[in-house]
Amino acid sequence: MKIAIVGYGNLGRGVETALLQQPDMEAVGVFTRRDPASLTSQIPAYALKDLPQHEVDVAILCGGSATDLIEQSPDIVRHCNIVDSFDTHARIPEHFAHVDAAAKESDHAALISTGWDPGLFSLMRILGLAVLPNGSVDTFWGKGVSQGHSDAIRRIPGVVKAVQYTIPREEAVARVEQGQGEGLTARDKHLRECFVVAGSEADQEAIRHTIVTMPNYFADYDTEVHFIDEATFDANHTAMPHGGQVIRHGHTSEGTPQVMKFSLDLASNPEFTASVNVACARALYRAYQEGRRGCMTIFDLPLAYLLPISAEELRANWL
Ligand code: NDP
């Protein structure tokens, strides 16, 4: 199948790496809003506006959720099938409706909001709900880099470089595993640790205060701020690890607790997310070939479609 990459940031580079390892996929190119000659991609780069001139089975959209995908997904699905990793949970129903209408009008298929969360974690949350309806689910993230929180710190005047790690609190994880997670607050579940390079030592106290009191990002958490020099930052804080776990605790009968857990420990968030998206592109294209149209989520695709392996082989070796 012919796959296009739309947008060449962290995720776009990860998709390129993943695509080049697939036996059944051909990389058509990277499509960007910037000057294609400015990219350092291994596969050919083209202007995004030229995408309709290429034969593409699925475009994997790698733009940001904040502003790119809201516009790009309904637009690009008019030309070809698409996969995106839109992760603004509160706006998924709205995004789905827009993409669904555009996909149906143009006779295409779309898979939105895939990756690991939303994505694989979402699958685990509904598996838990189906198997243990009498229970509760909790998601812990980290230890890992939150791009959104890191960006928020970088916007503070006087900050040169910054990274924010989200860290799950072990005591909260233990309570959830024992079925005693009720009432845990955001502060109880995660700690936020920030490493900041400040332009001047004199700014440090003001920067620390702005971070720990920042509404929506840090005010509801215990936040540690460490000031470090640029060389230490470059040596220790430029990777993008992440991960986390989904824990479902429930009872199948009184006095019979059951725990389901799914965890990820990722050295590179974008490379892992990209690997999920590439497998999902395969699944979406198989659904499209069977006549499915409109927008879908990972809940709507058969798991067997994720692999380039026959159903017979799956039954023989993987059950
Ligand atoms: P980036 O900020 O690296 O890239 C987003 C877009 O910005 C790119 O597609 C690119 O578009 C443009 N861009 C990238 N680098 C530059 C640059 N140097 N100068 C100007 N423009 C640039 O975002 P990520 O790749 O890290 O993440 C993309 C999205 O993936 C996130 O917003 C998040 O929503 C989602 N995500 C989802 C996950 C999940 O589990 N569901 C997990 C991780 C991420 P162009 O080439 O057209 O300029």
Structural class by helix and strand composition: alpha/beta
Compute the number of structural domains: 2
How much strand? 25-35%
Main beta-sheet strand count, sense and barrel state: 7 strands, parallel
Mean pLDDT: 97
* Bound chemical compounds: NADPH dihydro-nicotinamide-adenine-dinucleotide phosphate
CATH architecture of the largest domain: 3-Layer(aba) Sandwich
Report the CATH superfamily of the largest domain.
Answer: NAD(P)-binding Rossmann-like Domain
The number of helical elements comes to: 11
**CATH topology of the largest domain, anyone?**
Rossmann fold
Helix-strand sequence: EHEEEHEHEHEEHEHHEHEHEEHEH
Radius of gyration: 21 Å
Helix content: 25-40%
Shape from CA axes?
globular
CATH level 1 name of the largest domain:
Alpha Beta
Catalytic activity: meso-2,6-diaminopimelate + NADP(+) + H2O = (S)-2-amino-6-oxoheptanedioate + NH4(+) + NADPH + H(+)
Subunit structure: Homodimer.
Protein name: Meso-diaminopimelate D-dehydrogenase
EC number: 1.4.1.16
Question: Could you walk me through the main structural features you see in this protein, from its secondary elements to its overall organization?
Answer:
- Homodimer.
- This protein is an alpha/beta fold.
- It folds into 2 domains: 2-117 and 270-318, NAD(P)-binding Rossmann-like Domain (Rossmann fold, 3-Layer(aba) Sandwich); 127-266, Dihydrodipicolinate Reductase, domain 2 (2-Layer Sandwich).
- 34% of the residues lie in helices and 27% in strands.
- The strands form 3 sheets. Strands 3-2-1-4-5-6-14 form a 7-stranded parallel beta sheet, sandwiched between helices.
- Strand 5 (81-84), helix 3 and strand 6 (109-111) form a beta-alpha-beta unit.
- Helix 1 (10-19) crosses helix 10 (269-289) and helix 2 runs parallel beside helix 3.
- The two termini are 27 Å apart.
- NADPH dihydro-nicotinamide-adenine-dinucleotide phosphate is lined by residues 7-12, 32-34, 48, 62-65, 68, 85, 87, 115-119, 147, 269-270, 273.
